[in-house]
Amino acid sequence: MAIEVSERAREWLRKKGGVATVRLSPRHGCCGGGAEIAVAEARAPGEPACYTRVEFEGLVLYIDPTLVDQGLRLDVEGFLGLRHLFVDGVALSR
Q1: Rounded to whole angstroms, how far apart are CA atoms 41 and 32?
Q2: Cα-flanking dihedrals φ and ψ of residue 41, to 5°?
Q3: At residue 13, does pLDDT exceed 90?
Q4: How many helices and strands, by DSSP H and E, does the chain display?
Q5: N or C end of the chain: which has fewer CB within 10 A?
Q6: Distance CA 57, CA 65 (A)
Q7: Residue 94: what pLDDT?
Q8: Which 3 state secondary structure label does DSSP give 29?
């Protein structure tokens, strides 16, 4: 499997439309350094052709090709209406 999705995340994503994108997002430090971290969003990407599409238990996941088969886990955290997706298991990249 390209990515593990917790039961909690599957339920939450179904309520949000059943689509998620997992991608790298650049982060910049205050002194010039930077890194890319994996982020997850409950929406389709702007350019789906640039992602690996995975259908899993009624969900459609778009995963950045560099993150496929990296042992990632998609989960949801927070409470009530303040819940959001997160990705676990990926190292920072430069």
Answers
A1: 27
A2: -135, 145
A3: yes
A4: 1, 7
A5: C
A6: 20
A7: 44
A8: coil
